[in-house]
Amino acid sequence: MWRIHRRANRDQNGHQLSFLCYSKDETARFVNERIISNEGFSILKKAGLLERYFWEEEGRENKKINVEDTSDKMWPIEIQKSWPLFIMGVSQMLLELIEQMKRQSEQDMPTPNFSAPMHLIEGFYSELNNKLAGIWQTNGSHAFFHHLNALFGYAPLVVHLRRSSAVLTTF
């Protein structure tokens, strides 16, 4: 199982992209090798856009790690154990959504290859990120929240506000 986690620039960690993978050791090493040998990885590193990369192996020194160990400890154990399945599907959907958007963008502006000037690469992916945010803002309430609500039988939901915002969202 695997998932993507994106951190916003709201705390000392800044923007952070994490790829979490629950696998056998040899699979994890293979995935890590594919990441660090990717041309895009080295281009981002050389341009200073990848500030740091680290790979952590959990479950060492005879300590067994369970798939739920990366879930929020505040959740009931049933959610902790099932969350990785949910978020992996969401992560797969996100990557497919980005691929679909890239294909659609090809009609207006081709995806720059890694030999293109960095400002073109950054501009392309910034625009792609803006489109992704637009899809979320326009469709997230129905495509995601409404249909999750339906799966849970439209039971009332207690919403805990984490911070105030100028955007009001209803679902």
Q: Would you mind describing this structure in some detail?
A:
This protein is mainly α. The protein has 4 helices and 2 strands. The protein has a two-stranded antiparallel ribbon. A hairpin with an 8-residue loop joins β1 and β2. It is globular.
Question: Keywords for this structure?
Answer:
two-stranded antiparallel ribbon
Give a summary of the structure in a few sentences:
With 171 residues, the chain is mainly alpha-helical. Helices cover 49% and strands 7% of the residues.
Q: Helical region count?
A: 4
Task: Kindly provide the radius of gyration, computed on alpha-carbon positions and rounded to a whole number of angstroms.
Answer: 19 Å
* Helix content bin: 40-55%
Low-confidence stretches: none
Largest sheet: 2 strands, antiparallel
- Give the rounded overall mean pLDDT: 86
Note the topology.
Layout lengths: L1 E6 L8 E6 L3 H12 L2 H8 L30 H29 L12 H34 L20
Antiparallel strand pairs: 1-2
